[in-house]
Amino acid sequence: MAYVATRGGEQAIEQAERLFRADLAPFDRSRVDEIRRAMPYLIDRIMGEASLYDPDLAALALAQTGGELYEATLLLRAWRTTQPRIAIAQPVLQDELLVQRRISAAFKDIPGGQILGPTLDYAHRILDTAVLEGAAHAPPPVDPAPRPAPQRQPSLADWERTEGLVASPAHSPVAPDDIPDLTRDPLLIPAPRAHRLQALARAETGGVLALGYSAMRGYGSAHPTVNELRLAEAEIRVAHPDGTVFSCGRARVSQAEVAAKGGDQIELGFAATFGWNEVKVIAAATLDLNSDGAAPGSATEEEFYLYHTESVEASGFCIHFKMPHYVTFQSALDAMRGASGEPAGEGADHKIGASL
Amino acid sequence: MSLASLTRPWAAMSYGFLDASARREIRRKLIKAVAVPGCQMPYASREVPMARGWGTGGLQATLTLVTPESVVKVIDQGADDSVNAASIRKFVTRVSGCAATWDTAAATLIQSRHRIPEERLRADQVLILQVPDPEPLRRVEPNISAARQMHADADYGRLWLTLYEQIVRKGRIMQGASYPSLVNGRHVITPSPIPRWDVPKLNMARHLTILSAGREKRIYAVPPHTRVEPLVFSDRPYQVEAHRGLTCARSGLGGFFMNEIPQADGGRIHEVSDSNLGIKAIRIAEGEDETIAETWYRNGEMQP
Fold first, then answer.
1. A275 in Cβ contact with A45 (< 8 Å)
2. ipTM over cut 0.90
3. Count of structural domains within chain B
4. B230 → closest Cβ in A4, A315, A353
5. pTM score of the predicted model
6. Partner A contacted by B49 (CB < 8 A)
7. What confidence category does residue A83 fall into, taking pLDDT thresholds of 50, 70 and 90?
């Protein structure tokens, strides 16, 4: 049939893909290394959204997709699907994190101190156009502090708990294998808390920001105060079958705790993710904070924000509308054109239809 | 004995792409889906190397069932050569080593988007339909927790009401594709968005139909010899698309579901939607050795 040629089929998709790859030009390991070196925050962002911590693979995904972030995340997630789960790490405790930045907006000073760490918060956002004229972008070196900040910092919420400002959540120990794993169980609502935090950890940054921002602007009931924000490195500790616990590496992590006044206590919202991504964890913690009692269908309702910030699902469904839909369109046209349809199954034994 | 001698050689991915735990989960959910016809079974739904919404649910079911002996047919809108069908077929054959075909009668697994082939499927064939939205109640209840409760209660009153309202407002039921249908007298499904023309093919069929939604993470099934009844009122019979009298301008076939092709002069021609059926008819007309298997419809009439 002639429309084989007009729709193209296998040859067309092959050439369309080649065209995309030709625009990116051939590359080798050096491009991957340069992306990894030059763009750590971009790498962090997609490692978080992919829930796969591997900076080399993340840089490779960026190189392969030319920085199309949704495609890069999907590449990493699909890679993740092929990998076995070989161990479950020990819990990462807050006061064991190797902290590089840690601030609280709730108090002027806190036990352990406010540590600004690396940030552009107070930078003047001015393009260094001299670089385009040939100058080097060479910021002055950092002056070491006279007294180094401690590597580990106590948890502010722990202090608040001892003061009776924050309720202590009931601690129910779970065997590692029984921790609900969003990548192996479907997300059902109401979600176990583990699922909610896992879904937020891998949610799309822009989506979380949009919904979190709507809550901050007043569509949520609770106004967030940053109780504690941390950028840190976490030791990933696993147990060898002989019982020895050892560190198998470090991962950059961010976490945010946001606070709002409850009745007589502070309510906390929490979020954490792979990589350093402050916007995401503050927005995600705000959604967590506003979840309880949220109106059905509102942006802070758990079902609403968890389903609609899932990067791979949302972007995939959005682009699927490019696919042909002419069969369903034909069916709708037929209904629109009115009463010319015919009853189906006129054979005497084939009466079909469940009727009231 | 060494550790290496006890393990298989390293491979970048498992047979059929999905790792063993994913295949096991989907097999279990498939069995549950067959055991409770039409009931949506949640599953984890792994990411696969294609975008969500592009047949990832159907693909995971296919990858779970495929073996090196399988013969796989993939269609999109009824056509084997449609770009996404070509992409899925290429992937499945690449990761499983199975054979591919365009011939409905030769296939053991048929993955399809939006159509059921016109040639009647046999008991030894499995049809896998890609499903964008598995929830027939979505339009009346977008909240999935509430919708699950309604399924548990067999509470389909609001669905009936929308159909009734369409009759009151427009004089007929306006549902196009994905016509809500009652399976085994218990669960209402959305039969993926296949046209109304195809829904009777599910009723008391000889073959197993698996419906899988990857993005929404739900799998459900219509086992062989199971009632599938579109929701209708007793004085308003079920209407399929008015394609009975249409003729394919390329193959000369009539009495099958057609694609309408607008023409520059303001008119239209039709092409048979099941593209390989059209190819078979053309081959037969040209004297080639080709057979069209028994079809569900004959002269536009659904056969019992």
1. yes
2. no
3. 2
4. A353
5. 0.88
6. yes
7. confident
